[in-house]
Amino acid sequence: MSSANVTANLSREETADRASHITVHDIRVELDLSGAPEQARTGFPSVTTLSFDADVDATWIDFIGETVAAVTVNGAQQDVDYDGARIRVTGLAEHNEVRVEAVAAYSRSGEGMHRFVDPVDGETYLYTQYEPADSRRVMACFEQPDMKAAYTFEITAPAGWHVLSNQSPVRVRDGIGVQCVEFAPTLPISTYITAVAAGPYARIDGEWTRDDQRIALGVLCRASLAEHLEADEILEVTRQGLDFFSDAFAYAYPWGKYDQIFVPEYNLGAMENPGLVTFTEAYISRGAATDAQRGARANTILHEMAHMWFGDLVTMKWWDDLWLKESFADYMGAHASAAATRFTDAWARFANGRKAWAYRQDQLPTTHPIVADIPDLEAAKLNFDGITYAKGASVLKQLVAYVGEDAFFEGARRYFAAHAFGNTTLDDLLSELEAVSGEDMHAWSRAWLQTSGVAALWLETDAEGRRFLVQDGGVAGPRPHRLRIGVYDLNEGRLALRERIELGIQGERTEVELPDADLVLLNDDDLTYAKVRLDERSLATVSDSLSTLEDDLVRGLVWSSLWNATRDGELSAERYLDIVRRHAPAEPNVALLGAVLANAAAAVRHYVADDAREGQSRAWVDSTWTSLQSADAGSDAQLAWARAFAAASAYDAGHRDAVRGILNGDTPQGLPVDADLRWLMLTALATTGDATAAEISTERATDDTAAGRTAEIRALASLPDAETRAAAWESAWNDRTLSNDHLSATIAGFRAGGRRDLIASFDEEYFSRIREAWETRSIELAKRLVVGLFPDTTGTELVDAWLEQNADAPGALRRLVIEARDDLARDLRVRAAQPGLS
């Protein structure tokens, strides 16, 4: 491993030591992006001036780029001491000014300064993405969250471009073909939430006013996508969110302006840079979009907005307490959506979507407490996971049930007032919550934040007929839960709520008095975090009548319970799929429907017994086709079924003529066949050998956009011949010109259709490549390779051998391999158990 890779992975101990000796005040960053449209230019000048106090003679400054040309300390130039990740500076005084002149690199991986050329019009677009530690790819800095500073950015860029940063411009100097934009200094913020964007973006302006506060709003995207930008709704949700959070947190929005920019080839859903929030372009639909997609976008807008307080105003000291921002933002995204926007089904979507992510992550051998042990940056990168986000949000919902909503928000208000523009740890928040609630928050924290694993809840009846609520807390043991039990009766063929019983439980067994009922739903209202099992009578009832439940959240909880039981091998995949086929066509909530369709497809591919998979695959594609035809014309459900039909058709060619018909214009009435749906259909045909490379190229010629080019890469790599798959394999590992999106498309094509007969020969080579990839590629690209190309073998022998032989491999790499192994082992275990399940 190169020295740069070694020194780039900063540890908690060394950054804490640096923070104890260095107090940073102001940082000025000058970037010259004027040459960005010239693709031959791989880098750009970056000059950083750092003002800080020190009580040591020497320290290091973080930077990952092409070159460091000069380092000046307090007016005296020093020899450049740079190892590719750290610049060592010596001769420090009590007060210091260090100037670093360097050349940073443009990125195609979505890390640092990402450069994208739009094939539609040839225009160049730039944006930055840093979390957790990639601001050092753009500027010299102290790359750790607890060394906040006021940042002043000065950006030179082509004339006519929009140039943006966290603050508003205070000075613009025009030159010949260029402009130099200086921005107002920020308030104290961490490195990873500084931001820059530049390019000929299309912009829509708005404003939010509250009392005497006026906040300028902006919504931006590439010019070629402007016609699809639903700016009015984005601005409406933004205003609703600012109203809600201003009241909830009793702390005025502090960041001056609120721009939101949708950018290409983005690695995340969004990022909370204060004053310049970045979003993936996936939230802009080129054609038809469901209300569930808009609801998800609103949730993300509000999630990022919550970060303006949780994360930006008050920031965790180190990545151990990442939950202090992400868990709260995930909770607030759903809470504010339901309370302040038209997307009142947010908690139903959360229960059946986000929590599934948490449940899966929390059952892996690499699970960790919400308050995690994060020794270094590589570990931090992988901790943006289902536990930190969705489990943390679920536990916060339990906290609200435990202490009450008023106490929860009052504790948050006190937290912001006490720690504004500072850094905190777990105890800082707990002390505020304890003061307002009167509860022992440290005991609650030990039970919920500092243990790992997900509990399972179910009912048992003893020989005397007494009923007990049983909790299996796993290695963490039983936790305290506040929950509700819903009691439902069948009346004239429909399930209706009789009553909800609220109770608290502590131990493994709690006696409960429950009336006789057709359906007993534990954790009704989804107040706590636990997998819920249905008793046999309740299971039989929902098998027949699930779709008669009127409440979205209740149906979402039942769907979640069924899916968890299937993943755990307690409910047969065939029975689960039968329930889906019976009730999904009547599911009115398209967000729940989308999750159920995805889970059903996963059940077919992962959990159905080997000898039944072909039949179940055919039955599933038949079901999607039938439901597509019967769905209401022009409805969101029709579009959801069409997408599911296309995905299923990549694994079974039984309806190839119908797929071809849709491409040729023979579509179900009302179905909007846009470019994205056409690519799904064509890629399905390519995967089964029913489309040619020439057809794919022709399709791309009619959709010569960024999305079209990415789709073409995937479709071509999906063609079912050994030579094509081998070429995709080599390209994924060796073609360093592939952007992040193009790498993912190549990997998806290689894996398309589950064609083990075409790709099994690469299994051993995978394990010989992953360590070198980890050491030589950025962590974002390496992660895509390690996870995306993990082989779906019939046993775990190869991965077990690699883990034994690579005990000294980086911990983050081993974590990815261990998690992939666990998924594979679960698949094999559940498949083998199928014949004995009901």
Structural summary, described in words:
- This protein is an alpha+beta fold.
- The protein contains 28 helices and 28 strands.
- Strands 1, 2, 4, 5, 7, 8, 9, 10, 11, 12, 13 and 14 form a 12-stranded mixed beta sheet that branches.
- A hairpin with a 6-residue loop joins β8 (112-117) and β9 (124-129).
- α6 (346-362) packs parallel to α13, α13 packs parallel to α15 (590-606) and α20 packs antiparallel against α21.
- The longest helix has 23 residues, at 811-833.
- It is globular.
- The model has no long low-confidence stretch (mean pLDDT 96).
Question: Which helices and strands appear, and what pairs or packs with what?
Answer:
Blueprint: H1 3-8, H2 12-21, E1 22-32, E2 43-54, E3 59-62, E4 67-73, E5 76-78, E6 86-89, E7 95-107, E8 112-117, E9 124-129, E10 150-158, E11 162-165, E12 169-174, E13 178-183, E14 196-199, E15 202-210, E16 213-221, H3 231-249, E17 257-263, E18 270-271, E19 276-280, H4 291-307, E20 315-316, H5 323-340, H6 346-362, H7 377-382, H8 387-403, H9 405-419, E21 423-424, H10 426-437, H11 441-448, E22 455-461, E23 467-472, E24 481-491, E25 494-505, E26 509-512, E27 519-524, E28 530-532, H12 536-545, H13 552-567, H14 573-583, H15 590-606, H16 613-630, H17 636-649, H18 656-663, H19 675-687, H20 693-702, H21 706-718, H22 722-734, H23 740-751, H24 756-759, H25 763-776, H26 779-788, H27 797-805, H28 811-833
Parallel strand pairs: 1-10, 7-8, 16-17, 17-19, 20-21, 22-28
Antiparallel strand pairs: 1-2, 2-7, 3-6, 4-5, 4-7, 8-9, 9-14, 10-13, 11-14, 12-13, 15-16, 18-19, 22-23, 23-26, 24-25, 24-27
